[in-house]
Amino acid sequence: MSAATHDEHQGAAHSRPLEIAFAAVALAFASGYVALATQIPLRREAAAGQIDARFWPMVIGVAAVAVAVVLLVIAITRPAPERNDIERIQPGGIRRVGLTLAISLAFIALWSLGSVILFGYRIELFPVVAGLLMASLMLVYGHRRWLSLIIYSAALTAFVYVVFGMLLRIPL
User: Fold this and answer.
1) Which of 29, 54, 74, 95 has the fewest Cβ atoms within 10 angstroms?
2) Residue 52 belongs to what H/E stretch?
3) What's 156's DSSP letter?
4) Which residues are CB-contacts of 126 (< 8 A; sequence separation ≥ 6)?
């Protein structure tokens, strides 16, 4: 086995700073989530002992903060774990991550508009931008069959819209 072949199958290098940075980012994200969960508007306050709209987001947020703190403590107090099972960065991987981030930010920006009025008709943006999100992410990650790309994107968007928008009446 040549040195080049052996190198190509080695896992990623140990990285204590990476472990600490990941845990710190997770803690910051979870803390922000908790802060946002406390600001969820309530149509009416729940009676004592009852669950309101803030309950489950707070449970998830507090659990995420706890896990992030444990990860941070482990990252600081223990040596970095071996990463032999993690592949090295592949060609085009950084470009895909950047495109995913850009597409996701565009989705959030367009979704936050809610709806637009076009030619006198009010058009709900969620179904349109969710379908475009799915299709563009599938293209970024290598899906090339147009028919299945359109069918999958439309079906998943319709499912999310029907379940959350229509049945659960969550404003999308």
Assistant:
1) 95
2) none
3) H
4) 111, 161, 165, 172
Q: Which amino acid does the sequence have at 5?
A: T
Token code pair at residue 24: 């710190």
Site of tokens 């707070």:
58
Please say whether the beta carbons of 40 and 110 come within 8 A.
no
Long-range contacts, 22-26 (Cβ 8 Å, 24+):
22/71, 22/75, 23/68, 23/71, 23/72, 23/74, 23/75, 24/72, 26/64, 26/67, 26/68, 26/71, 26/72
Axis crossing angle, helix 125-140 with helix 146-160, rounded to the nearest 10: 140
How many whole angstroms separate alpha carbon 82 and alpha carbon 16?
A: 10
Cα(108)–Cα(106) distance, rounded to whole angstroms? Answer: 5
Please state, as a whole number, how many other Cβ atoms lie within 10 Å of the Cβ of residue 165: 15
Over residues 97-106, the pLDDT tens digits come to: 999 999 999 9
- For 119-161, write each residue's pLDDT tens digit: 888 888 888 899 999 999 999 988 888 888 899 999 999 998 8
